[in-house]
Design brief:
With about 210 residues, this protein is an alpha+beta fold. The chain is about 15% helix and about 45% strand. The protein has a ten-stranded antiparallel beta sheet with strand order 1-4-5-6-7-8-9-10-2-3. Strand 6 (about 105-115) and strand 7 (about 120-130) form a beta hairpin. The longest helix has 19 residues, at about 1-20. It starts with a helix and ends in a 7-residue tail after the last strand. The model is unreliable at about 1-20 (pLDDT under 50).
């Protein structure tokens, strides 16, 4: 029991320390270079094949108000940047029969409500997820953690105060008008998405 109490106290202090590193009312920007600051993964599992893809491109803003325990999030991922490691499959995925990257070049999420919990460094985020010309409201749980200044400098991050955000959730392709039957049974209707971004109080430098 004493060990559990010590571990619980340590975890609580860690969360409190992370929150203390962040300014109370701050906007963080996504989209810095090099692309190591963004990692978006997607996965499709069927009996015939498992497809894992990713992109290191995303832009957006994350606003956090630790006094009011709310905020806002807007993110955009360019569909042409998605890759699965097989050129022919990537071309098919972005074609008019699937995600139709030329007509719908971005996958976006824009929050309607954000509820922050500083005791666990989590956020309940409700917003509009848009893909392939369709929009669906969803609620996801995200985690956030301040990056200590010394660690950011050691890792040679650009200037600014940094925070790490992560979230995992699922989307059904048919909810967004994507014809799963075109995959010949090799593509699941449900894709698992994993998002990790590092965001800074300094805006990305446009090149």
């Amino acid at each position: 029991m004493k060990l559990f109490a010590r571990l619980s106290l340590a975890a609580g202090l860690a969360f409190a320390a992370s929150a203390a590193l962040l300014a109370a009312d701050t906007t963080y920007y996504v989209g810095h270079q090099p692309p190591k600051f963004v990692n978006v993964q997607f996965q499709s599992d069927t009996e015939l094949e498992t497809i894992v893809g990713s992109t290191n491109q995303a832009t957006g803003e994350i606003h956090m108000d630790l006094d009011k325990l709310d905020g806002s999030i807007s993110l955009s991922v360019p569909v042409p940047s998605l890759t699965t490691g097989i050129a022919m499959r990537d071309e098919h995925m972005k074609s008019a029969n699937w995600l139709d990257a030329s007509k719908y070049p971005d996958i976006t999420f824009k929050s309607k409500k954000v509820k922050l919990d500083t005791s666990t460094n989590t956020a309940q985020v409700t917003g509009d997820f848009s893909m392939h010309g369709k929009t669906k409201e969803m609620t996801v749980t995200a985690t956030w953690k301040a990056v200590p200044k010394e660690a950011a400098e050691k890792a040679k991050f650009p200037a600014g105060e940094w925070v790490k955000f992560a979230a995992e959730f699922e989307v059904k392709l048919t909810d967004f008008g994507v014809a799963v039957e075109n995959g010949g049974g090799k593509v699941s209707d449900t894709w698992k998405l994993r998002l990790t971004v590092f965001a800074s109080t300094e805006k990305p430098v446009k090149k």
